[in-house]
Amino acid sequence: MQQLAPGSKAKIRDILCVLFNHAVRWGFTDHNPISGPVRGSGVRQSSKRVRIPDILEVSEMQMMVPELQLRERVLVFLDMVTGLRRSELAGLKWFDFDFVALDANIQRSVVDQIVGPCKTEASQKRIPLDPYTAADLLAWYEVTPYKAPHDFVFAASSSRAGKKRGKQPVWLSTVMRCHIQPVVKRLGITKRVSWHTFRHTYTTLLHANGEDVKVVQELLRHSSARVTMDVYAQAQMPAKRAAQQKVVEMIRPQIAGTEYQMTA
After folding, report:
1. Domain span holding position 19
2. Three-state SS for 114?
3. What are phi and psi of 116, to 5 degrees?
4. Of 202, 195, 190, whose CA–CA distance to 176 is shortest?
5. Among 25, 98, 104, 169, which has the minimal tally of Cβ within 10 Å of its Cβ?
């Protein structure tokens, strides 16, 4: 329980409170220990986050990407310019990508090697894919031994995976700890970098570029936006692609005149 985020702890507290209320109603117990006998007593749990997430500077991202090996470079840059959650990165399969239309369909997430649905209904949407990331993905496709359409893009290839080798994704927490954070430390970046750092940074850059709130919401596939929320509005793919491309061009120089197509 100590490792859970404050928001998760607060949700667990609320669920237990509801369960005890039903138990009291049906006579299974005579009191609710979660809410307590009087206002302000019982189990208290704040949902406020403990610390403000670190945001990377563009220069720090530019330093980081060239220093990574191919697999880690693809993972990091893909996260930098899409804001995918760690579980969604792990759940990517080759048939999720359309290298002609340059987009990707986010359909699943993997948590503790268990495949499940995305976090919310809004998370299951197509996202634009820029030519740089497409090129890196195709470069990774050429060297990975697991390239069937239903294979995980970042499948576990270590012999330690045993019978699950190639059938489950790599542990991204291990990739971050063993392959990415050492590079961050070597470059002298003192910020706390995790997979969610890239999602926060992506959001910050989109806002800094003055993108429409609805476009930002749909790029991040959030279920709601506190400002200018309109459940019927839909951001079109050209607007989302243009917004994403600005972030891509801030990190890497422009590539023109190259076509990317997945080979069988």
Report:
1. 1-50
2. strand
3. -150, -175
4. 195
5. 25
Q: How confident is the model at residue 227 (pLDDT cuts 50, 70, 90)?
A: very low
Give residue for tokens 């891509």: 248
Is-contact 201 176, C-beta < 8 A? no
Are the beta carbons of 244 and 129 closer than 8 angstroms? no
In-domain check, residue 6: yes
pLDDT for 153-195, tens place per residue? 999 988 777 778 888 999 999 999 999 999 999 999 999 999 9
Looking at the 3D structure of the chain, how many domains does it have? 2
Which residue stretches of 45-93 are H helix?
58-64, 70-80, 86-90
In terms of domains, do 92 and 210 share one? yes
Q: What is the DSSP string of 169-212?
A: B--HHHHIIIIIHHHHHHTT--S---HHHHHHHHHHHHHHTT--
- Phi, psi (deg, nearest 5) at residue 225: -135, 130
Residue of 67, 87, 108, 78 lying closest to 172 (CA atoms): 87
User: Which tops the pLDDT comparison, 230 or 138?
Assistant: 138
- The tokens for 24 are 């009291």
Considering the domain architecture, whether residues 101 and 179 belong to the same structural domain is answered as: yes
Mean pLDDT across the chain? 82
Going by their DSSP bridges, the two strands 114-116 and 109-111 should be labelled as: antiparallel
